[in-house]
Amino acid sequence: MNHSEVPPLVAGVSVAAAALGGRYLIQAWQAFKARPVVPQMRRFYEGGFQQKMTRREAALILGIRERDALEKIRDAHRRVMVANHPDRGGSEYLASKINEAKDMLTGRTKGFESVF
């Protein structure tokens, strides 16, 4: 084997490897673009409210755990209230349930029931 034959062989193998790698990347990109779009939005509690709210229902309404910290309860209340505020097209009924849920989880009221 002559030293002058090695560089063209190495160059040929390199070009072939680059072509196969490029082909794989193009196929992967096309598969990525063709994947179904799945919305990444969080799902909120859809309602079907109980007559007297429980801690479980309150946590579902706010999208948190029953025993979360006070700051997390306040943040969740703020987020859900902004999305459902009556001044922005939400209903007063939903706003009252969201406030009731916050009060239930923060322990501000015992046995409180919505005015609706």
From TrEMBL:
Keywords: Membrane, Mitochondrion, Mitochondrion inner membrane. GO terms for biological process: protein import into mitochondrial matrix. InterPro entries: DnaJ_domain (IPR001623), J_dom_sf (IPR036869). The keyword Membrane applies. It comes from the Eukaryota. SMART domains: DnaJ. Its main location: mitochondrion. Residues 57-116 form the J domain. It is found in: Mitochondrion inner membrane. One of its GO terms (cellular component) is PAM complex, Tim23 associated import motor. One of its GO terms (molecular function) is ATPase activator activity. Component of the PAM complex, a complex required for the translocation of transit peptide-containing proteins from the inner membrane into the mitochondrial matrix in an ATP-dependent manner. Probable component of the PAM complex at least composed of a mitochondrial HSP70 protein, TIMM44 and TIMM14. The complex interacts with the TIMM23 component of the TIM17:23 complex. This is DnaJ domain. It comes from Macleaya cordata (Five-seeded plume-poppy).
